[in-house]
């Protein structure tokens, strides 16, 4: 006799079934496109790995994402440190800094930076009026402004995993280091930093994966000149109806994301981050 | 991607909010754009509702109910406007997945041609749509012009004084006309502008020499502050003086001129003019006939002139030009005298080459 | 000369005074235990010695040098924390090597020192394991090795054995003693376990409510407590408040319910009220009133508890005073519950407590 279907069995299978329907099936469809359009074969993947223009865009995406990730995680580390170990007043201030940006849409934040950075923007006008510069600085519509906008968006996301790991550090371990004669710097590099590495790695992966999908911020702050992989896929899908190539690029991005997620699970055990 | 049409809706909403447009004018504008939503709960029977897709805007919904009643009284049918935008990829998806939701799309002519060739679009039924109400030469197999717009040279008149630019060669001449430039990110008109600047005669533009055009653009690139992708962005660049010259849609150029009280000016000289096109996906829910009837209805010259007055969009029906006021004549992109100063973008060429050319163009843009 | 001298150390947290005017001297090579209930200030004082907590007032000297404001990292004290505070990302070897790296010692010397101390604490075969792979006792040894490898002037231990089970704790006690003797380092050990304190220490400092109550050898602490708190804190004791105490020929005499009790060597001046205390093991029990005992009280047996080598008894005097006594099993059969007998002890075993 087959086991009777009870509510638990159903509940247990519902999620995988949903996952299958909502993620896996479309994903297989996308993969199908990538090897069948316009003609069957691996042509799209060959193009992805050989086409100079596509490689250029991937290279730029990688460079921007790496710069954004490094900057965001560094800033997040400092924020997290003050958030976890600061005085109550400083903790509150840090919380405001971390949470308020969540309530502001990515679009508004990007335009906010345009308002601040453009030629007749707040920053340039101020610098001009105090005589610090003679000509407005070109700040917006550059790779710099794209990175700035992305970092601004992503820093709060990077704070949480780092703060979580910092909170778990046994303060006696740090006292022990001091007690053995170590200077604060020696303690930081040899004890504190190594103990926060799992949080740093988690932040790196979260920020990098997020950054990979960025579309609006580069479009607005890059003056149209900073085309990254997400926008490139959008172009293939909607502008030039090049579905096969777009699908191959999507699968490529997904592979990178999956590899990084795999790393996250294997190396740093995510369950440690939610304690 | 018909960014231009999306921009029209934004313009309309901006002007309405700014008090420059009264409610009646706003609604007429929407009628002309086909950009209003009928929120008609109840009656859902297929064939009684016609879905027109365009690039919608926030303000449109708020006044759709009032418009719906008027429209229903005139035609007996319900009209529903979907603002999600007839991107080529979206139209293709609907056809391929056999779930067409849109009856009439206001799309790029070259998208209509491309998808038409693949057998995805209805041929225009000229027994219902009146050829004589279309600007001669634009009676496409798969599209009918809804209105005309132009890609023009806009410039910092305050900076350049009396000797103003009037050709794309001037646009490329950064010594005579110093300052930064801005071009359109989605390429329409830009290759033509580059080739004209490089000395190609207007009659010999097509087929476009893409590599030559790109080389010309590359030479200008250090001076290009931004490749704009929204009308508002292009306007801001000129208004704030971040760019001294730009390739702008003539509607935005004209608005910038008004906003700056003439400090920014523009010209139809060597403007690159194109229609936006009504087109119908095969298997549309209301049937091809109902769709064609809507297109025929939209040919009404009165509505087209209202659209010109409120937004500056050039009428698609030549009969409309006679109704244009003296004041608006300089802005009428499709009038005989203005068309003579301009060069018409060739939708056929775009249908054949847009994808590959855009890939190369964007590679240059983002390099 | 004392190695460490603390004078008038006070520590306040806002209105709360964690330490009141604590002064003590610690000799080189001594095994000193701080004993007291939780919240008594013993750990606070240890942290002040270590330099992790700054005293509110008072002076701290080491070898005649004022170290009152010296940073923890400069004091060259070793510290074993409660919970050990090992570096979880380092192996046993790296943990022990850490303080030597801090001191920028050459690698050959480091290797030799680390190897030797790991051998001493019996962890040679675990040198390349991470702390999480070790048992509690093994972690304890790593902590000990790590805090001794750099030959600190003083080793401070904050309840290091509290996390271990009973058997392991006794084993580690003797090991600590052995290491103390081998290294000759001054050990300052904090515990709330009196047995541990008595077993291991050269001297015990009893803390209560932020005050140092008494600092003396275990024997004196046990047999000559100079306060009621110390007397009661360490082991079982009977305390009899006596009326009109007075000195009489080297003995202190006082009256309890009409019976005169006497104590030899009060050790300190008594005026007003006093109590005479006596440990249960100094009580003798007899069926007849003994003629040769100076201090004798009648009592009825309330409860008896057999403990193997000895038995504990609870008795009560006719006036309602409760008395604890213990007798060696070698002394014969236990009296039965309900029987009346006599309890006696000598003045030499009497402890005088000034109230």
Task: Please describe what this structure looks like.
The complex is a heterotrimer of chains A (275), B (367) and C (355). Chain A is mainly α. Chain A has one domain: Orthogonal Bundle (MetI-like fold). Chain A has helices at 7-34, 43-50, 52-85, 88-99, 106-117, 122-129, 143-168, 171-179, 184-212, 216-221, 229-239, 243-268. Chain B has 367 residues and is an alpha/beta fold. Helices cover 42% and strands 16% of the residues of chain B. Chain B has two domains: 3-148 and 274-343, D-Maltodextrin-Binding Protein, domain 2 (3-Layer(aba) Sandwich), CATH 3.40.190.10; 149-273 and 345-366, D-Maltodextrin-Binding Protein, domain 2 (3-Layer(aba) Sandwich), CATH 3.40.190.10. In chain B, strand 1 (49-53), helix 3 and strand 2 (78-82) form a beta-alpha-beta unit. In chain C, a hairpin with a 2-residue loop joins strand 4 and strand 5. Chain C has two domains: 4-228, 3-Layer(aba) Sandwich (Rossmann fold), CATH 3.40.50.300; 237-354, Beta Barrel (OB fold (Dihydrolipoamide Acetyltransferase, E2P)). Chain C is elongated. The mean pLDDT of chain C is 89. In chain C, helix 2 crosses helix 3 (107-120), helix 2 runs parallel beside helix 4 (136-148) and helix 3 (107-120) packs across helix 4. Chain C has 355 residues and is of the alpha+beta class. Chain A binds chain B through residues 52-53, 56-57, 60, 118-120, 138, 141, 219-220, 223-227, 232, 235, 237-243, and chain B through 1, 87-90, 92, 114, 185-186, 224-229, 233, 236, 240-242, 354-356, 358-360, 362-363, 365-367.
